[in-house]
Specification:
Elements lengths: L2 E6 L7 H15 L3 E6 L13 H4 L8 H10 L2 E7 L7 H8 L2 H5 L7 E7 L8 H13 L3 E8 L10 H12 L5
Parallel strand pairs: 1-2, 1-3, 3-4, 4-5
């Protein structure tokens, strides 16, 4: 069975980012994926200390990141989802990304591909910086970045995103294995 790990980088469990994550999970599950969503706002994840401990073994910080590492190592696809804050990703998703240093240092099992899910409150949010971070992260851990799904104008509420996400996931998963 194919597996997917979703990192939800929003602290608002009733917001658009959460809705995007649940819609992506549903779409992937309908395609036979076993999906786990990690709601980063509800987890204890410390900041990378750049101590170098991951070069010697595993991350020296003992927190909820271990759950994510375990899921990540068994997954075929990683979904990074975040609201846009001041033209960048949330601090929650960025803190988690920074903690994947061990995957840059070592050749460990990881998903073959990564996608981004981003939403912004204004009618014309700047998704470019966050997409660059997601792409750089993917390159660093040797995953193919398959693209992003973006939603703008969310300050007015949650738009109907189900059909767009379904089409996006359909394109991403078409003929794609680990």
């Amino acid at each position: 069975m194919m597996k997917a790990t979703i990192l939800c980088g929003s602290a608002d469990m009733h917001g658009v980012t959460e809705s995007m994550c649940t819609k992506v999970a549903s779409s992937l599950e309908s395609r036979g994926y076993d999906v786990v969503i990690y709601r980063l706002g509800e987890m204890d994840i410390g900041h990378c200390r750049d101590c170098g401990g991951c070069r010697e073994g595993g991350c020296v910080i003992k927190d909820d990141m271990q759950k994510i590492y375990d899921s990540f190592s068994e997954s075929d696809i990683l979904v990074l989802s975040t609201p846009i804050h001041y033209s960048g990703p949330s601090s929650l998703i960025k803190t988690a990304i920074d903690r994947f240093q061990i995957y840059w240092q070592k050749d460990l099992s990881h998903p073959s591909s990564c996608i981004g899910m981003m939403c912004g409150g204004s009618d014309n949010p700047n998704f470019d910086y966050t997409e660059r971070i997601f792409r750089a992260f993917s390159i660093s851990v040797r995953m193919e970045y398959r693209g992003s799904y973006t939603v703008s104008g969310t300050d007015r509420g949650c738009p109907d995103i189900a059909e767009g996400i379904e089409q996006f996931i359909g394109k991403i998963t078409a003929g794609k294995g680990r």
